[in-house]
Amino acid sequence: MINVALPKGRLGEKVYAMFEKAGYECPAIKEVNRKLVFENTQKQIRYFWVKPSDVAIYVARGAADIGVAGKDILLEYAPDVYELLDLQIGKCRMAVAAPKSFHDNGEKTLKVATKFTNIAHRYYADKGREIDIIKLNGSIELAPILGLSDVIVDIVETGATLRENDLEVFGTIVPISARLIANKASFQFKTAEIEKIAAEIGKQVMA
Amino acid sequence: MDDKLLKPEERALFSLRSLYKSYGYLPFKMSKFESYDFYLQHKDFLVSDRVITFNDTDGALLALKPDVTLSIIKNGEDAKGCKQKVFYNENVYRVSPNTHRFREIMQMGLECIGEIDLYDLFEVVSLAAQSLASVSDDFVLQISHLGILSAFLSGEGMTEIFRKQALQCIAEKNVHDLRRICIENGIDADSTERLCSFVGIYGERNKVLQMLEPLCTAPAACAALHTLRALSDLLADLPYSDRIRFDFSIVNDMNYYGGIVFKGFLSGICEGVLSGGQYDSLMSRMNRTSGAIGFALYLDLLEDRQSSADGYDVDVLLLYDETVPYQTVAKHVSGLVAEGLTVSAQKKAPAGIRFRRQIVLGKENTP
């Protein structure tokens, strides 16, 4: 039996559709009820929905053999997992944004508001730039508007929210998309099954 | 002694001690503390540079051991032609990568230090496999060779930063990001393809050796491949040889290790329970001329294998009151224990206790 952690929400539905197309359907998952775990014993697969940011934890701790997590989460928390496939969905980018008038002359410590403190820290450490990280949990775009920070490091999908708030992208840190991940120990004991799933889904990505 | 009473880690401890002794490894006991300066000098080799420190009565700054191997090397001597073979069972104190807090880790392992030859590599790898097999038949031991990894990562334009990023991708079996990094760093198409196909080479040893053959063209890679092939041939006669596989996603710390590295997994445990390899680089950094190979089994992780058994704390809850002579209680308890049952004698049932059956002695407890 392969346990799959799917991220709740629109991305998770897209991911399930890929698993379904790959031959790992589980009709019960489409029923409207409060069940959390869905199983197809014939296909030897069990799905469960979890908060997107928790998928990597379920997989790293072995509660799920495989799962689908955003590259942003993988970069931020660095779970010890295999990253088997780039699913090429949920595409966006991790970027630095600031008010259009912003100019970094390097004279003072840069105040960076972000939910992704590790990614921001690594990005500016590589550049040798001294920063003051302000950890926020939401509405990151508000920080530079109210003078809480000079810039933000956040996920940018279409850039619409930034434009509406007179902010613009000053640099891309890394492209983001959904990734198929696997627990390293599970992979040793369920190699053939996990490889088969990855290969079937891989075919859809390549198509 | 009833073997069932032992926890998995305690059972492993007994069987491993006997196993290591039978191969001539001598017990190595060390102090729980080391001078903090010692770790400060070698902090590059520690999993984390954070250690628990405290002052001794004379003011000297000491540390609770975060690593065993460093202490063994420090106390060993280079002896030409000889090998120092030791095993240990020690607790180390490290910061958990998950909780970012210190935790105590129970390790059992061995070290073979000296002029290491192919037999030593075989002996240590086979003891690692036997250690896993002594806990469970359902295990996998992955072996890699850092010489092959180094050879693949020493092409034109492969900077230190590129190597670090590429190693991360290899450890994750992450071909898509590895390809992206190669393109970003201007690595030529041939090297990129070679590197990316290398990530997909793992599994059954002979299959891996065959696939590696055309890729290992550099002299260093050829030499490493030769060692892997010779080791694989020796391992072929072991009863669980099919559970020992090659997998180059085992990258370990290249500051510490060089040559053969390996990692062991047990079914039902979500992370590697055994880790080891050749640490010649560490030896030379500690001014030792000889080589070394060893491994550690993380006994605390074996807790996960402990079944909840039948869910009972004791077989019998024996309740008595003041009216019952103590001799009667003692006679009942010893009789039940002699039957092989576990008994808790109480005046009142402790909250939450789970028992198979209850025996009530005395007036107050009579239903």
Write the layout of secondary structure elements.
The complex is a heterodimer of chains A (207) and B (367).
Chain A: E1 2-7, H1 10-21, E2 37-40, E3 45-50, H2 55-60, E4 66-70, H3 71-77, E5 81-86, E6 92-99, E7 110-114, H4 117-127, E8 131-135, H5 142-145, E9 151-156, H6 160-164, E10 167-176, E11 178-183, H7 184-189, H8 191-206
Parallel strand pairs in A: 1-3, 1-4, 7-8, 7-9
Antiparallel strand pairs in A: 2-3, 4-11, 5-11, 6-9, 6-10
Chain B: H1 8-22, E1 26-27, E2 33-35, H2 36-41, E3 53-55, E4 61-64, H3 69-75, E5 83-95, E6 102-114, H4 118-135, E7 139-145, H5 146-152, H6 160-171, H7 175-184, H8 189-199, E8 202-203, H9 205-212, H10 219-235, E9 244-247, E10 260-266, E11 274-278, H11 280-285, E12 291-298, E13 314-319, H12 326-338, E14 343-346, E15 355-360
Parallel strand pairs in B: 1-5, 7-9, 13-14, 13-15
Antiparallel strand pairs in B: 2-4, 3-4, 5-6, 6-12, 7-10, 8-9, 10-11, 11-12
Q: What do you see in this structure?
A:
The complex is a heterodimer of chains A (207) and B (367). Chain A is an alpha/beta fold and 207 residues long. Chain A is 32% helix and 32% strand. Chain A contains 8 helices and 11 strands. In chain A, the strands form 2 sheets. Chain A has a 6-stranded mixed beta sheet with strand order 2-3-1-4-11-5. A 5-stranded mixed beta sheet of chain A has the order 8-7-9-6-10. In chain A, strand 2 and strand 3 form a beta hairpin. Chain A is elongated and about 65 Å long. The mean pLDDT of chain A is 93. Chain B has 367 residues and is α/β, with parallel strands linked by helices. Chain B has 2 domains: 220 residues, BirA Bifunctional Protein, domain 2, CATH 3.30.930.10; 48 residues. Chain B contains 12 helices and 15 strands. In chain B, the strands form 3 sheets. Chain B has a 9-stranded mixed beta sheet with strand order 1-5-6-12-11-10-7-9-8, sandwiched between helices. In chain B, strands 2-4-3 form a 3-stranded antiparallel beta sheet. In chain B, helix 1 packs antiparallel against helix 4, helix 5 runs antiparallel to helix 10 and helix 9 runs antiparallel to helix 10. The longest helix of chain B is centred in the middle third of the chain and has 18 residues. Chain B is elongated and about 90 Å long. The chains are: A alpha/beta (207), B alpha/beta (367). The interface between A and B is medium-sized, with 18 and 18 residues.
